Structure formats: structure tokens, C-alpha cells
TrEMBL record:
<dbReference type="GO" id="GO:0045087">
    <property type="term" value="P:innate immune response"/>
</dbReference>
<dbReference type="GO" id="GO:0043123">
    <property type="term" value="P:positive regulation of canonical NF-kappaB signal transduction"/>
</dbReference>
<dbReference type="InterPro" id="IPR000253">
    <property type="entry name" value="FHA_dom"/>
</dbReference>
<keyword id="KW-0391">Immunity</keyword>
<comment type="similarity">
    <text>Belongs to the TIFA family.</text>
</comment>
<dbReference type="InterPro" id="IPR008984">
    <property type="entry name" value="SMAD_FHA_dom_sf"/>
</dbReference>
<keyword id="KW-0963">Cytoplasm</keyword>
<protein>
    <recommendedName>
        <fullName>TRAF-interacting protein with FHA domain-containing protein A</fullName>
    </recommendedName>
</protein>
<dbReference type="Pfam" id="PF00498">
    <property type="entry name" value="FHA"/>
</dbReference>
<feature type="domain" description="FHA">
    <location>
        <begin position="50"/>
        <end position="121"/>
    </location>
</feature>
<dbReference type="InterPro" id="IPR033621">
    <property type="entry name" value="TIFA"/>
</dbReference>
<dbReference type="GO" id="GO:0005737">
    <property type="term" value="C:cytoplasm"/>
</dbReference>
<keyword id="KW-0399">Innate immunity</keyword>
Amino acid sequence: MTSFEEAGTEETVTCLHMTFYHPCQEDKMMFRCLNFRKREQVRVDEMPKFGRDSNVCRYNLMDTRVSRIQFALQFYRKLDSSEFCFEIKNMSKKTKLLVDQTELGYLNKIDLPWKCIICFGDYQILAEIEEGESVDYFETSLHLAEVPILQERCPPSLLPIMENGISPSLFPSQGKSPMEIDENE
């Protein structure tokens, strides 16, 4: 037998990809303590925390508006399943955590969807789970976004569109009173 034949089967590792955005990142550098350069291994019995307390949190956010411990993640396997999941728990007494459209108060927790957006304050984090098989550890891969993950969405205009397809909002009225138009003109 060759060494190739004797080698163990390579095991894939679950990876949590997290892309961070804050509008003041360039000025305040609140992500300066996060390692954006490489994947990081986390043992499955650890519960990584995100916040500003470097003595407690594995992932530090350098911002006084962030709680000492903002949120924590727990890696686990579903009962009677081979599927691995993450659970997210809000650890902040002052700030609610939004996971997609679900609002979490202090100590509330939910399963992290395979792709979701986590928000608190002005922070936006896109979380994506890459499935793996390892039962000993998982990995995190952190990324920095230069543009907002959530785009402000303007509600559709409630103004009527004229038959010619031109919206009246495109032409300011310049102080004129409304004028009635015959539909045959």
C-alpha cells in the first residue's frame, strides 16, 4: 500500500462566512481587531462571542456603542440528524438583534438560517453557512463589505402615472396650482 492509500479520508469542515458592514468603518475602524485574512478554526465546545470586551469575546468590535457581549453563536447537530447548525443568541440588554426579519431581545435565541442578515445598531452582517462534516471544529471566514449589505429601499411612488408614461413627480410644479386636463388633449 502506498501512503496515499493509507491516508485518512479528508473531512470537510462547516464554515460560517460573515461579511461585516458599518457606515463609519473607514473613519472609526471598528473592525480593526477582526482577522479578515484567513479562516479561523473554532472548537465545537466553544461558544464564540462578538462584542467589545476583549477578555470575553473572541471577535472584538471596537465601538463603545456595542455591548460588552453583543451576541454569541453555538454550533450543534440537530437531534436524529447529521445536519449541523448554528444558533445565535442576543447577549445585549440594551440592543435588539435582528436576524432577517426576526427581532431578538436579551437572551432570545434562534437557529441561524443558512443565509441571513444580522443587524444591530448600524451594523450589518451577512452570514452564510457552508456545510461540512467535521464533528471536532468549525471554521469562521470573515469579510469586510465596502457597501451596505442592506440597501435602503424607497417605497414605490403612489403618484399616478400619466398615459404617456411620464410620472408627474419628474416635473416639479414650481408653485403652480393643479390644473385640470381634458383627456382628449
